[in-house]
Design brief:
- The structure is a single chain.
- The protein is of the alpha+beta class.
- It has one domain.
- It has nine helices and eleven strands.
- Helix 2 crosses helix 7 and helix 2 runs parallel beside helix 9.
- The radius of gyration is 21 Å and the shape is elongated.
- It starts with 7 loop residues before the first helix and ends with a helix.
Length: about 250
């Protein structure tokens, strides 16, 4: 039986070729590849915004949650994590993809694309085909969340327990209500699941829409309107805040 030998010089030449290809790709010499990836991310992020908008509708219309919905008039930011099988966005006990928008008066920022992980035992106890809506009720909590998520990046996520949440899941702490979390399938989120959640930026979607040097705090500080795909979602939230103020 004969064997095929590979010389050290051949292996070296192959390694050098791979390094050159990687360098050329990084320099944009093969623009079609990077452009296609970016286009996919733009398309995917637009679909996520649409899914988030659809997930909001039960929260905004179900009479069971009117009292919680009215709190939107005082919320400083909102997180929506949809469960949309058709669009490919799944929310399970392990987590899911979502958007975060910050409120300025009755105007909302453009969305920051985020990843939520470690949703926890409280979520596992309910049905998994449910979307999640979280109202962040103080500017300090929004700032801390954004700073924390930016600092950890993809290294595990910023745990919501770092906001000082108690075990009840609704976020009652000495300084007042910090976070209200609602499952659009089963109502108010119960148990200790909220404190176990971790939030991190979804870099691919954010970079595709805001550039490689995007800044979560700068996006949240803006008055929105720079992301056409989010126009309807922002309009829905503007109307919801107006209704909350005058009900």
């Amino acid at each position: 039986m004969s064997s095929i030998g590979v010389s050290a010089s051949a292996v070296s030449r192959l390694c050098n070729l791979l390094r050159i290809c990687a360098l050329l790709l990084a320099l944009g010499v093969f623009p079609g590849i990077s452009r296609t990836h970016a286009q996919d991310a733009v398309t995917g992020s637009a679909a996520l915004v649409q899914s988030a908008q659809s997930a909001l509708q039960p929260f905004l219309t179900d009479p069971r949650w009117r009292a919680v919905r009215n709190a939107l008039g005082g919320a400083r930011a909102i997180i929506v994590v949809p469960h949309d099988i058709q669009a490919g966005f799944l929310l399970t006990a392990a987590g899911g993809s979502g958007v975060l928008l910050r409120r300025h008066g009755n105007v909302w920022s453009d969305p920051i694309f985020i990843q939520i992980g470690s949703v926890g035992v409280g979520f596992q106890a309910g049905a998994e085909n449910q979307s999640l809506v979280m109202l962040i009720m103080s500017d300090a909590a929004v700032d801390q969340l954004l700073q924390g998520a930016m600092s950890v990046g993809g290294s595990g996520g910023f745990a919501l327990s770092n906001l000082g949440l108690g075990g009840g899941g609704s976020g009652n702490i000495s300084n007042g209500l910090e976070i209200l979390s609602v499952s659009t399938n089963s109502g108010l989120f119960a148990g200790s699941g909220i404190a176990g959640m971790k939030i991190s930026p979804q870099d691919g979607f954010n970079q595709a829409n805001y550039g490689a040097g995007y800044n979560m705090q700068a996006i949240a500080a803006g008055m929105g309107g720079n992301l056409p795909s989010a126009g309807t979602l922002r309009a829905v939230l503007i109307e919801a805040v107006t209704q909350a103020w005058y009900q």
